[in-house]
Amino acid sequence: MNRWKWLLGLVVVALIVAGAYIAGSGSRGATGPADPNDADTAAFDFEATTVVVRQMDATGRLQYQVNAARVTQLPRDGAVAASDLTMRYEPPNAPADGSERWTLTAQSAQLPESSDTVELLGRVRVQGNLPGSKIPATFMTERLDYNFGAQEISTRAPVEMKWGDTRFREEAGLQFNIRKGTVVGSSLNGQIAP
Q1: Closest CA to 178 of 121, 144, 110, 56
Q2: Which residue among 11, 80, 94, 133 has the highest number of C-beta atoms inside a 10 angstrom radius?
């Protein structure tokens, strides 16, 4: 099972257990919510605020970290949604100093229940060091999909990339493999060399 999916699944289970504990065995009255905020919560199965989840490897080294201001699970399709999201990914065998860490931020994100791809929306920013480079690369767009298994980011929206003094803008979007540092889908196909 994909580590991100397992990690988010663990968050979902923990939040459901916590919600069940807090709610007890009682149910809402038939006359409607007693608290005005209960009407807002009817749109999702659970909610958690100020969420921080970390996944460590067997040696205790950080692999993933997810921070979000708010996380909810949508009742219709089971998707997990987050707001003000920051995801940090440490590639396998990366130095412990964080020099190869990739960070993704977005105003909102959604992980469908049966998918390995997180949909990131609103001021999306992806930053990290390309293989063999000490200079971080930054991708900025308004919408981006991040596939954890393939370690690929992709968008059909306009995207801007900055890498040191090099800048480019691709209007038709792009697909980029984080692990390899390779553009794999756009009119700018090729390897980004340090």
Answers
A1: 144
A2: 80
